[in-house]
Write a structure and sequence with these properties.
Strand order of the largest sheet: 3-2-1-4-5-7-6
Radius of gyration: 18 Å
Structural class: alpha/beta
CATH architecture of the largest domain: 3-Layer(aba) Sandwich
CATH superfamily of the largest domain: LmbE-like
CATH class of the largest domain: Alpha Beta
Oligomer: single chain
Mean pLDDT: 92
Number of helices: 10
Number of strands: 7
Strand content: 15-25%
Shape: globular
Distance between the termini: 6 Å
CATH topology of the largest domain: Rossmann fold
Largest sheet: 7 strands, mixed
Amino acid sequence: MATAVFLHAHPDDEAIATGGTMALAAEAGHRVILVFATRGECGEPVEGVLEDGEQLGDRRERESERAGKILGAQRVAFLGYRDSGMMGEPTNDDPTCFWAADEDEAAGRLASILREEEADLITIYDDHGGYGHPDHIQVHRVGRAAAARAGVSQVFESTMNRDHIRRAIGAAIEAGAADDDLRERHATLDDDHEPFGTPERELTHAVDVRAMLDRKREAMEAHASQIGPDSFFIAMDDERFADAFGTEWYIAHGAVRVGPPFAADLFADFP
């Protein structure tokens, strides 16, 4: 059995990006540790969700604890930084935010958790943070530095399959179900410089998480301050949800196999 640390930027990222992998790992008997860089203070709360005087960061911390339990996490920890907001926003300049954090200090905080847990593997994000969010980019940098410091050699970068997304949008366009924003997104996905996901040829792992989609959706719903009942995440029918979230994608640098056919298990070395 292995101990796996899943590092994420904000509460709800874990449910969307790696929730199925976490649930599968826990089901198989591995120890699952969920670590957040921030409490997501810059998120936009669903209208009417917060109680009078309730701080968003406090609410999202509680939501992450509930989601973690749903996904089988045996520990939920925070590195203690503030949410940096989207790239270019004034919140990027907050000296307490994750984007402004000293990389060595942040890596030290994470490395302490990795050592304490005797972690065997860690998941982070790809080098552009999936879609260019500063906190996601910092997760990549800090995660790799901490893994090296703590001697964790198994590092998997969570990402999106850009080609799969492009094919799905293309099908929607052909069916006449795409708006102008979706058509514009489809065009940008042909650009290798677009910081949204990773081309299929660069991916190494495709984890089939369809058996855990009920837990994944439930974990998303636990983040009610961010994902309301009208959110497209929740409003999708089961078939579309499975198509969008039934596979979780990763990059393992140095892996023998790159591009399809993909490896299917992050825990292959830990029976």
